[in-house]
Amino acid sequence: MSLIPVTILTGFLGSGKTTLLKRVLTEAHGQKIAVIENEFGEENIDNDILVSDQQEQIIQMSNGCICCTIREDLRATLADLAAKKRKGELDFERVVIETTGVADPGPVAQTFFMDDEIAEAYLLDAVVTLVDAKHAPEQLNDRVEAQRQVGFADQIFISKADLVDAEALHALQHRLKHMNPRAPQRVVHFGEVPIKDVFDLRGFNLSAKLDIDPDFLKEEDEHDHDHGHDHHDHDHEHHGEHCGHPSHQHDHAHGHHHHHDDDVKSFVFRSDRALDPAKLEDFLGAIVNIYGPRMLRYKGVLWMQGTERKVIFQGVHQLMGSDLGPAWAEGEPRVSKMVFIGIDLPKDILVQGLQQCLV
Length: 359
Known about the structure:
alpha/beta; Rossmann fold; Hypothetical Protein Yjia, Chain: A,domain 2; 13 strands
């Protein structure tokens, strides 16, 4: 039986998760989806659609979807659903797990890699994070969980953008991009996201592509290689005081005020020299050991000495996996590119360590 794809839906209270889930559970989209709800959410779907016997954990919707609440732990709920599917008692093609507004999606994601029984039935597809444009700036300032949800995301949907002006939206997008340059951002209305944009995003598969927002790379380049400030003028016109780009604080004494230096940050390491496989393995192993709990997501597409193929690695917290990708194409520039997203990760230690792994 093929693996059941799973989407983790996260985001702070009021960001529109419930609206999105209601659509999944009631709209005629032709897919059979099981939604697992964390029961202790402050705004439960139950109140609205699920007027039914409270003893029943699994409720069948009119459009073929299933909704179930977690009474025990997530693992038990998933195992139970998979068993019922095998026996033909339940019919569903995929699972959406809604985490509560204050949850860190990390442990939920790890369940799919650490637990053999779960890994044999399910495939984690992506973490989708909903961000409420109006309240996000404050939530990101006050709650590290909100930052983690952004750092973990494979896709970010920004809701309630109609309630803020263009400048505030731009500043928020800029801020989110620096926390997580690998997740595409999309502005959505009232959680009305086409189902196809939520599913099969393949955020966790070891693909040979490392999508990092191109603007983010451009800025990184300017910081690394350009000590004149000309390129930044356009930047400052847009973001003015709200630039919120932590590295400007150190790199340029522009007298700008920065309101947020987020705990969750990302950085990219790139090199056009080959990496020594043994050294890199030792170094990454050590880093994951020490900083694992603070490392949310990381991924790299690497040029390794001794192989004609790209090497791809990625991880969540302490769990790291790697694989051989396709061969380097004729004439394709061989570069290694890695992105690390985490909580107060020591960029200098990581960069220095990685440089020492170069051949």
